[in-house]
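Give me structure tokens for this 232-residue protein.
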Amino acid sequence: MGLSKASSEGGTTESRFDRRLGEILAHATDVFCEKGYEGASMRDLSRASGMSLAGLYHYFGSKERLLFLIQENTFSTIVAELKRRLEGVSDPEQRIRVFIQNHLEYFVANQSGLKVLSHEDEALKNGLGSKIAAIKHEYYRICIGLMDNLKRARKLNFNSRTAVMSLFGIINWIYTWYKPRVDGSAEDLAREMGDIFIQGVGRASHRTRIRDRQKSLNHRGHRGSQSRAVAR
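Here you go.
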């Protein structure tokens, strides 16, 4: 089956094109998930997608191009949906919860995709990796902004980068353990993870304030002892 992007008069529409492309990327994701990027061949991808090997090479050129399209489609979809959901939400805590739920809803429904993205993070070369890195950086910067806003609104004291990377560490590994019957829906999971994360940064901020206060007191005490020593 071809992927020609013709007008409706020609018998195909853009929606049919997008649907067929989505099917091919879904099959390719399953193959990469099962065999790994290095272990998968174009012949494997051809059999899984139902497209001839010649057709696959004609439209995509290589399995690297397919991996690029999987990553591009995934991250672009997540970022676009996140921006849409954040519109009209002003509360800093709720905006972080929106971020968590948006991420989890997508990957609970696409766990194979999350495994492929996690395991094949550095497989793309020849400039394709930098294009994906740019989209991922935008996603990261959005999350950093959400953390900074929470810090300002609640007068918290924690490292935004540490918080963001910790959050990704929590939400990116669900494919290794998530079970719907045990862990509930994506919405349930997002609510619980949101509670754990928000409470966690609050406690971390409190401990940071205590440490900073203690350091300040110790520093003052050290300076005071030095002054007394000089006076003697």
